[in-house]
Write a structure and sequence with these properties.
The protein is an all-alpha fold and about 400 residues long. Helices cover about 70% and strands about 0% of the residues. The protein is built from 14 helices and no strands.
Length: about 400
């Protein structure tokens, strides 16, 4: 099996520049190069991250949420109705109008009660604010530490300041221990996110998040195996530069600290737009497209690597659109209502509130009409009295 993979999948003509083979990158006593087998260690490390996350959320994030004043919304539980529960679990959580009408007749309840039951049932499955806060806290802690670690790894490296250095001597770049651990930690973290994606808070960009995790894992893994280590470290530190700010803004939002949340959102938006829409395409992608061509001719690995970078850039543009939408609301409304990606909780009393408002309007109209009727009746009565008076001779 390994020989087949080596011959057809990992052939040097696909992944290395013309004239270079894997034999040119064999380890020696004083040099070590990246190997695909090194990536296997990231899988068990991913489960270590999952275990560490559970401990972090229980021992640190949960007490912190109480200290910051995170409050849960009171949710009404859906009453036990086996027929509706079966439909909810096996068919749809949001049935269509025809289905609701049929369920109403089948359960002998009103259409309004069926809609209310499904609304309450959907809210039961939504994560609590405390869960959201704990998730944001965990990501904040990792992204902040990863960004600081990335800067420590890169600040003294020449390719951090001059991106042409990424390609001098490529692909025979020696793997440094700091680069190895930086890669393995980042890769293990994204594997852990992918493993837990079905349990984490689901947002509107759920599919985009999965694509992002998969593209990131492929990008990290491929850049490691093909020894794009120098460019890969730049990609990771650029991404980590804004992520921890976003997670901290979420934490303050869930805690109800509106002013702090709004301030951090502005900072995050500025950093995100600069790093993802300016630095990433104009520095990272530019060096992979053009500077690399000064060293070698295009090959399959070159196109594949740039394709992954472009997928990330398209996701950056999508998220920038959502951020700018929030920024427009912030400018014209004066505050940020919610994360545009969030799956907002449905109000338990939405329709009752609407009914209440309708009833209030009816009462006001009735009172208004009553006053008009009284005035009209009074005018008619006075008119009749005048008509009954004897006419002056």
């Amino acid at each position: 099996m390994l020989s087949i993979l080596d011959k057809w999948l990992w052939h040097h003509e696909y992944w290395l520049p013309p004239g270079i083979t894997w034999k040119d990158m064999e380890d020696s006593e004083h040099t070590r190069y990246p190997r695909p087998r090194d990536l296997v260690i990231a899988i068990p490390y991913a489960f270590v991250f999952i275990a560490a996350r559970c401990l972090f959320e229980r021992l640190i994030a949960l007490p912190l949420s109480k200290q910051m004043g995170v409050k849960e919304k009171i949710r009404r539980k859906a009453s036990p109705r086996p027929t509706l529960e079966e439909v909810y679990r096996t068919q749809s959580a949001c049935p269509k109008e025809n289905d609701i009408l049929a369920l109403s007749k089948q359960c002998d309840i009103s259409v309004q009660e069926v809609k209310m039951w499904f609304r309450h049932r959907r809210n039961q499955d939504r994560p609590s604010i405390t869960q959201k806060f704990c998730e944001a806290s965990w990501r904040f802690a990792f992204y902040l530490l990863a960004f600081v670690a990335g800067l420590c790894v890169l600040l003294d490296k020449p390719w951090f300041w001059d991106q042409k250095e990424c390609w001098k001597g490529y692909p025979q770049h020696v793997l440094l221990p700091s680069q190895y651990w930086y890669y393995m930690i980042e890769l293990a973290f994204y594997w852990s996110l992918l493993f837990r994606v079905s349990l984490d808070v689901k947002r509107k960009d759920f599919k985009e998040q999965i694509i992002h995790h998969i593209a990131t894992i492929f990008l990290i893994g491929f850049s490691y195996c093909a020894n794009y280590i120098r460019v890969g470290t730049l990609v990771m530190v650029v991404h980590d530069a804004s992520d921890y700010i976003m997670e901290s803004a979420k934490m303050f939002n869930y805690a109800g600290w509106r002013r702090s949340c709004d301030t951090l959102f502005v900072v995050f938006a500025v950093v995100f737009l600069i790093t993802r829409l300016l630095i990433f395409p104009n520095v990272v992608i530019y060096t992979t497209f053009y500077y690399s061509m000064e060293i070698f001719q295009p090959f399959f690995g070159y196109y594949f690597f740039n394709l992954l970078l472009m997928v990330l850039q398209l996701l950056h543009i999508f998220w920038a659109y959502l951020i700018l939408r929030m920024a427009v609301k912030f400018v014209f409304i004066g505050k940020i209502d919610k994360d545009e990606r969030s799956d907002a909780e449905e109000s338990d009393g939405t329709e009752e509130e609407e009914d209440g408002r309708t009833e209030s309007k009816c009462v006001l109209l009735a009172n208004h009409n009553g006053v008009l009727n009284k005035i009209t009746h009074g005018m008619k009565r006075k008119s009749n009295e005048r008509n009954r008076l004897p006419k002056a001779r």
